[in-house]
């Protein structure tokens, strides 16, 4: 028998969320990281609404929101002047319990997740490096090194959440095609003069991308942007060298500097996310531009997707083949996201005609036009918040009812809060309308919880079909959508995937 069920390499947000999700379901695990301890500075800042919805399933969303700062509006600037204010809360109201983006520094985020993981009885093994591993019959045998001493660990599965330079990905020989942007980025935490600004500010000037967002409740802002091309080759670059341009672009005066660093941005997606009993997630599988604040959230989405499937297989609640759905679901989204953020990034900073059109016409003219329509506001929010992520080509998807297809995130219905029963651990059957006795009987035989809600205008507006049956996966995505409430179809779906719903 393996000494642990899952060995996780990497204790960033992706690895910590994977560990937390598995621990909540009683899965034995070890999580190791070669760093001596938690990070003290970070570049990732934004927690999107979909991530908060997933955290709500864990029972930790409110704690995370309290630790951060809700960003309810974005200000777009061109050449140092504001051209548009986007009210994020207005765009997301009615679509999610969290109609905003949350600003929470990655190091604070990681400390919070690590504390929650300790509450589950699991401690991160800092200063422990994964050196090598191989797959054997029934599991993975890994070599770990701590304090100069090597030891082996036998696990049923291995998850590489170990970043862009992933040892797991490299050991598996998975290609990581893509490239590196020529621009040099800067990042700094600073206190600016005047009242503390809790909104997001984005300057779109050609080759002068600059962003400012709130960092912590004590009144510090994060400034991110591109180093002026004339200074990008300097190895001794200081903030004072770029201060005049940064302050002009963002319309601020920096009063106090906490720290400053420079870095390059890559855009890559691994050729595969799985090889046998080993998986990769987060930056080990995909990295991209900071456009839209999507990177960390995508890694957390990977972790949640993988966690419920590993737990189901390890607990004997699903056929092992369910693990085959992880790669196609998450790699398809990663590829689309990298392509989209790449186009957006190049448009924001490009000096050609396309970039000029985006900054001078599309942003100041088309966005306000779209924002004037409900459909346009909803599209903007869903795209940015990742509530639009769907797995339409998943081997786990079947059917459609109303506007909701298998693979979609189950829409949130505000008047009944139909996301409240989701706990990230078990499947649920949801009906807005009347539940037929035949369907109730089948659910009872399967041990499947049923959430029944009165039909409402909110449910109709969300795209649901009256009296339709929606079988929800543990992550809140639709597995089966059946407008006819056919009990035989539900039971056949459960048999096909080897699903066992009843709790022990």
UniProtKB/TrEMBL annotation:
Keywords annotated in UniProt: FAD, Flavoprotein, Monooxygenase, Oxidoreductase
A Pfam family it matches: FAD_binding_3
Listed cofactors: FAD
Keyword Oxidoreductase assigned: yes
Keyword Zinc: no
GO molecular function term, any single one: monooxygenase activity
Protein name: FAD-dependent monooxygenase
Source organism of the structure: Paracraurococcus lichenis
Organism lineage: Bacteria, Pseudomonadati, Pseudomonadota, Alphaproteobacteria, Acetobacterales
């Amino acid at each position: 028998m393996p000494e642990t069920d899952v060995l996780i390499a990497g204790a960033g947000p992706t690895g910590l969320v994977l560990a937390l999700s598995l621990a909540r379901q009683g899965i034995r695990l070890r999580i190791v990281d070669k760093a001596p301890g938690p990070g003290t500075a970070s570049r990732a800042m934004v927690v999107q609404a979909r991530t908060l919805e997933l955290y709500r399933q864990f029972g930790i969303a409110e704690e995370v929101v309290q630790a951060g700062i809700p960003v309810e509006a974005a200000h777009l600037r061109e050449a140092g002047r504001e051209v548009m204010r986007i009210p994020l809360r207005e765009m997301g109201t009615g679509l999610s319990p969290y109609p905003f983006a949350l600003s929470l520094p990655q190091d604070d985020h990681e400390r919070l997740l690590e504390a929650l993981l300790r509450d589950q009885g699991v401690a991160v093994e800092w200063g422990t490096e994964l050196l090598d591993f191989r797959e054997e019959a029934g599991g993975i045998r890994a070599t770990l090194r701590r304090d100069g001493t090597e030891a082996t660990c036998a696990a049923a599965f291995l998850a590489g959440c170990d970043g862009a330079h992933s040892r797991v990905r490299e050991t598996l020989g998975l290609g990581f095609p893509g490239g590196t942007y020529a621009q040099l980025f800067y990042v700094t935490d600073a206190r600016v003069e005047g009242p503390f600004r809790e909104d997001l500010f984005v300057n779109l000037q050609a080759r002068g991308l600059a962003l400012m967002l709130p960092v912590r409740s004590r009144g510090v802002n994060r400034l991110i942007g591109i180093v002026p091309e004339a200074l990008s080759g300097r190895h001794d670059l200081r903030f004072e060298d770029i201060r005049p341009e940064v302050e002009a672009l963002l319309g601020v005066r920096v009063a106090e500097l906490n720290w400053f660093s420079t870095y390059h941005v890559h855009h890559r997606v691994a050729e595969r996310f799985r090889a046998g009993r080993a998986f990769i997630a987060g930056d080990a599988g995909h990295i991209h531009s900071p456009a839209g604040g999507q990177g960390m959230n995508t890694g957390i989405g990977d972790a949640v997707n993988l966690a419920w499937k590993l737990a189901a297989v390890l607990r004997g609640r699903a056929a092992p083949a369910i693990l085959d759905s992880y790669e196609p679901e998450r790699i398809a989204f990663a590829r689309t996201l990298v392509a989209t953020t790449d186009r957006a990034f190049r448009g924001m900073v490009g000096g050609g005609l396309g970039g000029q059109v985006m900054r001078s016409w599309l942003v100041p003219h088309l966005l306000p036009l779209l924002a004037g329509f409900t459909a346009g506001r909803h599209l903007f929010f869903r795209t940015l918040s990742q509530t639009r992520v769907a797995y339409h080509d998943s081997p786990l998807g079947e059917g459609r009812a109303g506007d909701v297809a298998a693979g979609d995130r189950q829409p949130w219905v505000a008047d009944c809060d139909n996301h409240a029963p989701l706990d990230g651990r078990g499947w649920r059957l949801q009906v807005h309308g009347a539940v037929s006795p035949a369907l109730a009987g089948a659910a009872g035989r399967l041990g499947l919880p049923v959430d029944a809600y009165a039909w409402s205008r909110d449910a109709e507006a969300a795209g649901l079909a009256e009296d339709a049956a929606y079988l929800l996966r543990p992550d809140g995505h639709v597995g089966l959508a059946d407008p006819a409430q056919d009990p035989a179809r539900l039971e056949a779906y459960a048999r096909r995937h080897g699903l066992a719903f009843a709790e022990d």
